[in-house]
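Sorry, explain these C-alpha cells?

***
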Amino acid sequence: MSEETNGPVNGQDGGQAGSQAGRQAGGQDGSQAGGRTIALVTGANKGIGYEIAAGLGALGWSVGVGARNDERREAAVQKLRKDGVDAFGVPLDVTDDASVAAAARLIEERAGRLDVLVNNAGVTGAAPQTPTTVALDTVRTAVETNVIGVLRVTNALLPLLRRSASPRIVNMSSSVGSLTLQSTPGAEVGPISAAYAASKTFLNAVTVQYAKELADTNILINAGCPGYCATDLNGFRGVRTPEQGAGIAIRLASLPDDGPTGTFSDDAGVVPW
C-alpha cells in the first residue's frame, strides 16, 4: 500500500512549483495565535506528500509527517529538519482506527490544536481496473484508503481543527475523478478505472458534503489535483515533478479566511466535477 496520492492529469500542466508556491502562498503566515501554524500531512514520507510537507515547512509552519512506515517516516523527518523545517513524525495508518486515534492524541499533546490537515495518503490499486474484470478487493482497498481513510482521519482531527483560528482541510484528489472529463470524448483521463478513478469521484463528493456541513464554521475544505506526477505510484511515468504536484495543496492549505470552500482545482484553475 502506497502512502501518497497521484493520478493522471487531464492534459493541463500548470507548471507551478510546489515548494516555490509554498514560499509565495498567501493566507496563513505561520504566526497564528498561540504559536506557529501546525499542519499534518498524511502519506508524507515520500513523493508528493513529502514535497507538501517541505512546502508548508518553508512557510515557517510546524509540520507533522504522517506515515505508516517507521523508518521512512523518521528518514523524512530528519531530511526536512536538515532543510530547516520544524518537522515531527506522526505514526499514522489511515485505514486503522486505533492508529488514527493515537495520531490525534499525539498532536493534541504536542500542540493542543491543528490548523491544517492535508489528506494526501492514497493508493491506486492493482490492474486491471475495467469494471468487468476488476477484483472486488481492489475496489474495496481503494475506497477504504482514499475515501474512508479521509473520513476517518478528518473526523478524528476535527475537534483539534475547531480550536484553530483559521482551519484548513485539503483533500488530494485527481482529475480522473471528474465525471465531466470522464464523459468527454477525447479527454485525457488515463485508463479505464473502476477502483482508483471511482474512489476519487467518491472523495470529491465527500468533500462537497463536508463543505456543506461546515458552511457555518471557519473551516475551509477543498479538493486539489496535483497533476500526473512522476512517483513510484505510477512507475515514475508522470510528466510533472512531485514538487510541482505539491503546489496546489500548499495553495489550498494557505487560503485566506475569506477563501473558497467546497472547490476542486489544479494549478490551471477549476477542475470540473
